[in-house]
Amino acid sequence: MSQSNKYIPAFGHERLTPLYDPFLKWVMREEMFKRELIRQANISAGQRVLDLGCGTATLTILIKQSRPDAEVVGLDGDVQVLEIGRAKAAKAGVDITLDHGMAFQLPYLDGSFDRVVSSLVFHHLSREDKQRAMNEVFRVLRPGGELHLADLGKPQHAFAQFISLFVRRFERAADNFDGLLPEMMRRAGFVGVVEPAQFVGALSLYKAEKPDL
C-alpha cells in the first residue's frame, strides 16, 4: 500500500477514536451543521444516499431518521469506527448499511446513488486522493445526482484564518484552506458548484451536481 493510500484513523491514532464523537458534538457543533447538510441535500423518497467517510455513522443515522423512505449507505475505511456505528444504528433502531472501503476507491457500480454526502473527510486526504475521491463520487452518482459536502474551506474572516494556521500543520488541510475543493469538483466533471454556507471557524458546506443526460 502506498503512502497515499494509507488510512489515517480519527485524530491520527486508534487509541483516540473514542474521543471522536464527543469532540464533534461539543467543539464542532456537529448536529447543527449536519442537519443543515441534510436539509441542503433535499433527499426524496426512494432515493439512494451514500454517506462517504461515515465514521461512527452519526450523519448516516440522522439521514435515515429524517428520511426513513430513503436507502442510506455509509462507507468508511476504519473498521473500528464502523463497529461503533453499527452499535449506534442498532440502538437507534434504524436500518442502514455500513460498508468498509476507501473514499478514492469506492466499491460501487457506476450511477449507484442519487446523493453523496460527506462530512469532515476530505481534509484528511492527500491532494491526489482528494481528486481521486471527487472522481469516484462523480462516477457513482446517477446523472442529475448531487454531492453535498461539509468540510474545512477557505477562511472568510480573521479568526478562521488564525485557526487555519494551526490546523494546516497537523492535517492535509492546506488545499481546503486555499479554496481548492470547488476546482477539484469541477475537474471531476461536476457543474453548479456552490458554497451555500459557512459555519464556526472555516467549516464550509458545498453543493455540486452531476450533469443530467
List keywords for this structure.
213 residues, Rossmann fold, seven-stranded mixed sheet, 23% strand
Account of the 3D structure:
A seven-stranded mixed sheet has the order 3-2-1-4-5-7-6, sandwiched between helices. Residues 15-28 have low confidence and may be disordered. The chain starts with 19 loop residues before the first helix and ends with a strand. The longest helix has 14 residues, at 79-92. With 213 residues, the protein is α/β, with parallel strands linked by helices. Helix 2 (30-41) packs across helix 3 (58-66) and helix 5 packs across helix 8 (181-188). Helix 4 (79-92) links the parallel strand 2 (71-76) and strand 3. The protein has helices at residues 20-26, 30-41, 58-66, 79-92, 127-140, 158-170, 174-177, 181-188, and strands at 48-52, 71-76, 97-100, 113-119, 141-152, 191-198, 203-209. It has one domain (3-209): Rossmann fold. The radius of gyration is 16 Å and the shape is globular.
Q: What string, H for helix and E for strand, traces the elements in order?
A: HHEHEHEEHEHHHEE
Q: Helix/strand-derived class?
A: alpha/beta
CATH superfamily: Vaccinia Virus protein VP39
Any idea of the CATH topology? Rossmann fold
Quaternary assembly: single chain
CATH class: Alpha Beta
Whole-number radius of gyration?
A: 16 Å
- Largest beta sheet: what is the strand line-up? 3-2-1-4-5-7-6
Number of distinct helices = 8
Instruction: Report how far the terminal alpha carbons are from each other.
Output: 37 Å
CATH architecture: 3-Layer(aba) Sandwich
Spatial shape: globular
Main sheet characteristics: 7 strands, mixed
Low-confidence stretches: 15-28
Strand portion: 15-25%
